[in-house]
Amino acid sequence: MADPVPGLDPAAFRAALARFPSGVTIVTTRSEAGTPHGFTASSFAALSLDPPLVLVCLDRGADCFPVFTAAQRFVVNIVTPAHAALAVRFATKGEDKFADAGFEFDDQGIALLPDAAAVIRCELERAVPGGDHVILIGRVHDARTGDGEPVMWYRGDFLRIGESAA
Fold this sequence. Notes:
- The protein contains 3 helices and 12 strands.
- It is mainly beta.
- The protein has a 7-stranded antiparallel sheet with strand order 3-2-6-9-10-5-4.
- It starts with 9 loop residues before the first helix and ends in a 6-residue tail after the last strand.
- Keywords: Oxidoreductase.
- This is Flavin reductase family protein.
């Protein structure tokens, strides 16, 4: 754990970050043994169009951290409001994340949500340390969109696009 920054109130920092709405994703991969793994991430962004790169941030304390940093491929599923409970499950340690979740598996055996707002399949280009997280940079090799609208995370709760925050 890094030394605290003098004068920075950690609670105020977290509250400031919560004022920035972000999309919600469920990121999946599989271990060398073929076991599916995943986590919920709101720190996801496009990095480059040429070459096609995205980034997603993973907490170093996540149970799936070693699997993702060793994986060759991962999938970013951009979730819809219908996936809110599933996103909470994937953000929780110790849950049986894939049980009755409606995932399909691609030709590499990686879970994807068939009714996601978008599915982006990536090869791990690089894992870059970033404080208490690692930044996974993925080279996109396939992307598709679905019919659903994405959901956002804002001030500790889900927010639908076009909906007013309380």
